[in-house]
């Protein structure tokens, strides 16, 4: 008797303390809608086949990892549009360095993370020290990365050894390694944001840069740190993609529209685009929503060009659903 | 105090002082363009002939028109990233509507113009009433338009452009005194440039665009109909994008990737032409020369043997550098 009341009470407390973002209700709606549509117009795999559910998560891994980094940058009041080409560079460089040999795996990982850290550092420095609008700064670095990669590689380059494919294909029990890594990254992001000093500073800087500076924060360092973390998550996404594809190609980043979609999932998840408010759990829901839509389009056989259209419309409408009530003037 | 000490006394130095203070007011884009142009004409003799100059002006006219449109949105404080997709739409859509029949050329352009205007209107309305940042709206619109067009034409261009459609982008008027051959694209640019110059620098519309770019609240309080002006700015930009699209297609021919990246080129041209991102400042002639400077720089690098993909690298460096320079100057003034 007493034990049940205690568990009930603590359950409610836990539920409240979790602050489940409203986007999870939207997630359920999207899942049920696509499940029902699938039941009516296709073979009903989404609701009946548990493998499809896991497949949705695997599809979400690539976008999910980089979206967590994007969440941090956006909370800090900045943005990163260079992730798509950084993902391309990672996938090409890692498979180029590996050349199918297991002994090169470690070297390749060190190289790509070093590249990622440098790109993040440069982004952060341009935004903070040169005071360039973050949209423009990272679009500029994205153009630079694009030029470098298109000038250097034009097709599949190198390959990854069998041992490296565990990231993309291996399972622990019935759960894919990649899904576990995604959840570790999400938990890591949550920990950084809510349990560390850096996270608290990030919210402060994103909320009001000037106030944060006047209260003694080294705001530039915080923003640069967020940019470096974001670039590192993009690198991890690139490594995941290359381990799935088994060879790197320069078009994987822009083809996946990771720049726009990572921003979209962050905003759908309830993080303010102007910074200072939000979290990683909402972003995770946004990512899974995109995974469900992907799977549903696939099941229903929607024309690939139309899926681009629907995604573009969803990005705009999702952002609008948060902004339309605000009194703030935007441009 | 120190300025009083070095104030010129004699007439000559007074005159020199006057000349220098006027030279200092010249926007940096003109001397930069001049220097680059001289370098290029040393590298390649075609650039010092009248024919070569006219060919250069024909090639750059579409970008200049796109940049003027982008300038209007930028100076209202927004961005328009959908114009590249609009160029693709105009080219692919027209190739389908033309159906290889010259009689369809102007109806096709008319239909594209109507679609362009409605896209601009949606951009403006979503920004104004749903309060979505223009960056997101136009980025989404870029995907949306591209997807719709590819779906419409089935993934690949159909047919070719008829000559009367292509004329606007690649035609010449032959046997013009002094110039030799005068590009039709340049005439379009001059007409559009004059119209927008009047609209932007001489009418209330232009002043109101600049006002909302500078300070939305102040503009609203002083009676500017912010939403209307914002929508009008996006629509103007889209109209110019359609015109620029017809000229781009006329010059370059049918191609699925024809408009890709043009939005960034237009923004880069604006930045080089001294437009302030975030709004409040802009000049039509400077932006046209911004487009010329960008193109001549890329021609120079091509002549020097830089592979084509590195164009993007240069463009990225220019955008960052120019914005950083403006930000630095703004801080110095303060």
Topology order of chain B in helix (H) and strand (E) letters? HHHHHHHHEEHHHHHHH
Q: What's the overall geometry of chain A?
A: globular
Sheet having the most strands of chain B? 2 strands, antiparallel
Number of helices of chain A: 16
CATH fold descriptor of chain A: ABC transporter involved in vitamin B12 uptake, BtuC
> How are the strands ordered across the major sheet of chain B?
1-2
By CATH, the architecture of chain A is named: Orthogonal Bundle
Share in β-strands of chain B: under 5%
Based on secondary structure, the structural category of chain A is mainly alpha
Structural domains of chain B: how many: 1
Oligomer state of the chains in this structure: heterodimer
Approximate shape of chain B? globular
**Uncertain segments of chain A of ≥5 residues (pLDDT<50)?**
none
User: What is the count of distinct domains of chain A?
Assistant: 1
Largest interface: A-B, 45 and 58 residues
Strand content of chain A: under 5%
What's the CATH C level of chain A? Mainly Alpha
Describe what this molecule looks like in 3D.
- The complex is a heterodimer of chains A (331) and B (334).
- With 331 residues, chain A is an all-alpha fold.
- Chain A has a single domain, classed as ABC transporter involved in vitamin B12 uptake, BtuC (Orthogonal Bundle).
- In chain A, strands 1-2 form a two-stranded antiparallel sheet.
- In chain A, strand 1 and strand 2 form a beta hairpin.
- In chain A, helix 9 crosses helix 10 and helix 14 packs parallel to helix 16.
- Chain A is globular.
- With 334 residues, chain B is mostly helical.
- Chain B has a single domain, classed as Orthogonal Bundle (ABC transporter involved in vitamin B12 uptake, BtuC), CATH 1.10.3470.
- Chain B has a two-stranded antiparallel sheet with strand order 1-2.
- In chain B, strand 1 and strand 2 form a beta hairpin.
- In chain B, helix 4 crosses helix 10 and helix 5 packs across helix 12.
- The mean pLDDT of chain B is 89.
- At the A-B interface, helix 7, helix 14 and helix 16 of A face helix 6, helix 7, helix 11, helix 13 and helix 15 of B.
